[in-house]
Structures are given as C-alpha cells and as structure tokens.
Amino acid sequence: MAQLLIRKVDERVKARLQRRARRNGRSMEAEAREILGDALKHEEKTPAVGFGTATVALFSGQGIYLGKPIPEIRGMRMQIPTFDE
C-alpha cells in the first residue's frame, strides 16, 4: 500500500477530522482514507467535461448535430414570422 503525508493542515480541519473519526469509531488515518475514497468515487461518476465546456464545443463549430455541422448564424438577419397566411 502507498503512503501519503499531508503537511500544513489547518488546526480546525484536524480537530474536525478527529471529532468525525471519534464519532464513526475510526482512527484519524482510517477516517481520512474513507473521506478520500468517497470523494474519488463521486468524481468518477461525473462527466469527463462539464456541461458548459460541451456546449461551447458544440456551438463553436467543433461539434456535430445530427450528422451535420451547426450553421453559423452570426451576421444573419433575423426575420419575424407572420402567421396571417
């Protein structure tokens, strides 16, 4: 097993870790391992890129929508539709 040394931990963080470990019946080391393991499990479930990054990529000409590139609309004149006909 690998070892990990964490320096410069705030005293309040250490005290909270001690309380949490005591509450859960574990050592501080075991509690820290549990916290790190839980944090990384949740990270694996997140998408590789965020929604904003994916949206920018999609609409900047890098993405494909239904097999066709999204047309650029910058500079196009918009027309208000009429529903009288």
Précis, in short:
This protein has about 80 residues and is mainly alpha-helical. The protein has helices at about 10-25, 30-45, 50-60, and strands spanning about 65, 70.
Describe this entry's structure for a reader:
This protein has 85 residues and is mainly α. It has a domain at 11-69. The chain is 49% helix and 5% strand. It has helices spanning 11-23, 28-44, 51-62, and strands at 64-65, 68-69. A two-stranded antiparallel sheet has the order 1-2. α1 (11-23) crosses α2. The chain is elongated and about 75 Å long. The model has no long low-confidence stretch (mean pLDDT 81).
Defining key terms:
mainly alpha, two-stranded antiparallel sheet, 2 strands, single chain, 85 residues
Mean pLDDT: 81
In terms of structural class, how would the helical and strand content be classed? mainly alpha
Outline type: elongated
Approximately what portion of the residues adopt beta-strand conformation?
under 5%
* Order of strands across the main sheet: 1-2
Q: Measured on Cα atoms, how large is the radius of gyration?
A: 26 Å
Report the uncertain regions: none
Helix content: 40-55%
Tell me the series of helices and strands, N- to C-terminal. Answer: HHHEE
Q: Count the strands?
A: 2
Main sheet makeup? 2 strands, antiparallel
Structure annotation, total helices: 3
